[in-house]
Design brief:
Strand order of the largest sheet: 6-5-4-7
Largest sheet: 4 strands, antiparallel
Number of strands: 7
Shape: globular
Helix content: 25-40%
Mean pLDDT: 75
Order of helices and strands: EEHHEEEEHE
Low-confidence stretches: 149-171
Length: 171
């Protein structure tokens, strides 16, 4: 199965490692897109909310492209792995994801094996960068094109994804 190794390092020198499946990665992109738009639509009309979301995400996308195309990565921009692994050195497979919009960003609950759960509270700049990375990796893996919605209020958001898609096996 297609998977992305997702590593998170903290200022306390801890590193968390997860496997994101295609379903999980695309769900995070879709749910965060809908939730961010819904949050903006509380204080702006639909068109303005969409323009703000596009502009903000475009800045993160451009920053990622600039960083990846630069022969000399700016100081402090490189990923620095942790030396402490609170959930172990081996990555854990994320079984499910729950996303909730909070005042300063997005709260992402990762459901892990044996019923474990880990919460990532991502401020907006970090969330946008994570979305850029996931969208880029999904594109490189040919997982299908992620198409952001034009309006979040068109459909209610189901921020809980708990069913596995049907898998066709070919022998």
């Amino acid at each position: 199965e297609d998977r992305i190794l997702f590593r998170v390092a903290t200022h306390e020198d801890a590193e968390y490692r997860f496997w994101f499946t295609r379903r999980v990665a695309l769900f995070i992109l879709d749910a965060s897109d809908k939730l961010l738009l819904q949050g903006l639509e509380k204080t702006h009309d639909k068109e303005v909310a969409q323009a703000i979301a596009d502009f903000s995400q475009g800045g993160a996308d451009e920053a990622l492209k600039t960083q990846n195309s630069s022969p000399a990565t700016p100081a402090g921009a490189e990923y620095v792995p942790g030396t402490n692994y609170p959930i172990g050195v081996d990555p854990l497979l994320v079984h499910d994801v729950r996303c909730t919009l909070v005042s300063d960003g997005l709260s992402i609950d990762l459901v892990l094996p044996a019923g474990g759960q880990l919460n990532l509270s991502l401020p907006m700049p970090l969330l946008r960068m994570m979305r850029s990375l996931l969208a880029t990796l999904a594109g490189q893996a040919s997982w299908g094109v992620f198409a952001p919605l034009t309006s979040a209020s068109a459909d209610p958001v189901d921020v809980h994804q708990d069913s596995e898609p049907k898998v066709r096996q070919i022998h």
